[in-house]
């Protein structure tokens, strides 16, 4: 949560647990979160634990965490996070004469390289498997770095409910594969997200809806956009509206909330971070990059799953940040 120009962390009651002190702060995953600070005029991103202690510190300036290990420069981007004890990293060999293939891998919570190989890119582990990209194709590896599914798909997502979305090269459509790489839900969708809380958002016939693991429809195709479910809710948009829905596809929370809404993120740990406009004012600009809030001068607040605001910035902050004279 932000207070004036500094970020810290609050608990579910809105009490500050880690005081506002960072230039930027990401969500906690697996007990760790990445935070941005400045040091000697440069941008530095470190990982902290839930006590606010730095456990993995960057050794270089830049947009992400950068660590020197042996002859490698290991980098973690701010939109990446820990999952199943590991975080995806890109590995740069510091020897300028190296002309070999790209290397990616995973860093553990002690800041050590636990797994790496000749992959173009790696993604978070989920249900024991991690998606990798190699040669323009997507496959999956296990914790030993061995291929569980060879890179044969044109695109893919993370496993959940034993299934992962995969883009079939032959049809150009998305379906869902099992952990052997076989399509369980046949390719038929133009877009498909991972399963979350037992359903997955899919795009078909120019509309988004949700399906069950057996391929049956959970919420009919009717939305212009649709996020994955989290903490029982998903954010969707129609041609004229934007709101959260429950698992039955019903709109939830008070309509007044949405009339002031500028932007929202999905629910995480029981709360959704929302950007709202004060009364009688429109939304100011905001900029996001890979879920990293680069700039947002609207009022920020957290909404819990009961639809109640558990923390809201004071108007004084809004007027100060935007250099507006308070009425």
Taking pLDDT < 50 over at least 5 consecutive residues as the criterion, the unreliable ranges are none
- Largest β-sheet summary: 5 strands, antiparallel
- Give the distance, in angstroms, between the N- and C-terminal Cα atoms: 25 Å
Shape: globular
Number of helices: 2
Number of DSSP E strands = 33
Compute the average pLDDT.
92
Q: Going across the biggest sheet, name each strand in turn.
A: 8-9-10-11-12
User: How helix-rich are the residues, as a percent range?
Assistant: under 10%
DSSP strand content:
over 45%
- Structural class category: mainly beta
Gyration radius from CA atoms, angstroms: 21 Å
Features:
327 residues, mainly beta, 5-stranded antiparallel β-sheet, 4-stranded antiparallel β-sheet, 2 helices, 33 strands, globular
Summarize it.
The protein has 327 residues and is mainly β. The chain is 4% helix and 51% strand.
Task: Explain this structure.
It is a single chain. This protein is mainly beta. The chain has 2 helices and 33 strands. It has helices at 255-259, 315-321, and strands spanning 2-3, 6-10, 16-22, 24-25, 33-39, 42-48, 54-56, 65-69, 72-76, 86-93, 103-108, 113-117, 121-126, 129-134, 137-141, 147-153, 155-156, 164-167, 174-177, 183-189, 191-196, 199-204, 207-211, 217-223, 225-226, 234-237, 242-245, 261-264, 271-276, 286-289, 292-296, 299-304, 309-312. The strands form 9 sheets. The chain has a 5-stranded antiparallel β-sheet, with no helix packed on it. Strands 4-5-6-7 form a 4-stranded antiparallel β-sheet, with no helix packed on it. A 4-stranded antiparallel β-sheet has the order 13-14-15-16, with no helix packed on it. A hairpin with a 2-residue loop joins strand 1 (2-3) and strand 2 (6-10). The longest helix has 7 residues, at 315-321. The radius of gyration is 21 Å and the shape is globular. The model has no long low-confidence stretch (mean pLDDT 92).
């Amino acid at each position: 949560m932000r207070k004036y120009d500094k970020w810290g962390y609050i608990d579910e009651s809105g009490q500050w647990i880690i005081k506002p002190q960072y230039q930027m702060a990401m969500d906690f995953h697996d007990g760790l979160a990445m935070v941005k600070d400045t040091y000697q005029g440069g941008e530095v991103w470190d990982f902290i634990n839930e006590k606010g202690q730095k456990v993995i510190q960057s050794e270089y300036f830049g947009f992400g965490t950068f660590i020197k290990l042996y002859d490698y420069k290991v980098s973690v981007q701010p939109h990446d996070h820990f999952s199943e004890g590991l975080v995806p990293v890109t590995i740069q060999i510091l020897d300028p004469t190296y002309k070999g293939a790209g290397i990616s891998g995973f860093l553990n919570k002690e800041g050590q390289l636990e797994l790496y190989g000749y992959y173009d890119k790696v993604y978070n582990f989920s249900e024991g498997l991690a998606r990798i990209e190699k040669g323009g194709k997507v496959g999956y590896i296990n914790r030993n770095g061995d291929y569980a599914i060879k890179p044969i798909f044109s695109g893919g997502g993370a496993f959940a409910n034993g299934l992962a979305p995969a883009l079939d090269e032959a049809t150009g459509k998305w379906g869902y594969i099992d952990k052997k790489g076989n399509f369980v839900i046949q390719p038929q969708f133009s877009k498909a997200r991972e399963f979350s809380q037992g359903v997955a958002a899919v795009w078909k016939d120019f509309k988004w809806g949700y399906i069950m693991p057996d391929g049956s429809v959970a919420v009919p195709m009717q939305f212009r956009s649709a996020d994955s479910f989290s903490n029982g809710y998903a954010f969707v948009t129609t041609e004229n509206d934007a709101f959260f829905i429950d698992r039955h596809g019903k709109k939830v929370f008070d309509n007044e909330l949405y009339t002031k809404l500028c932007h929202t993120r999905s629910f995480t740990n029981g709360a959704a971070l929302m950007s709202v406009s004060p009364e009688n004012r429109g939304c100011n600009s905001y900029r996001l990059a890979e879920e990293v809030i680069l700039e947002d001068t609207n009022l920020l607040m957290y909404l819990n799953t009961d639809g109640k605001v558990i923390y809201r910035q004071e108007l004084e902050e809004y007027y100060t940040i935007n250099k507006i004279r308070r009425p």
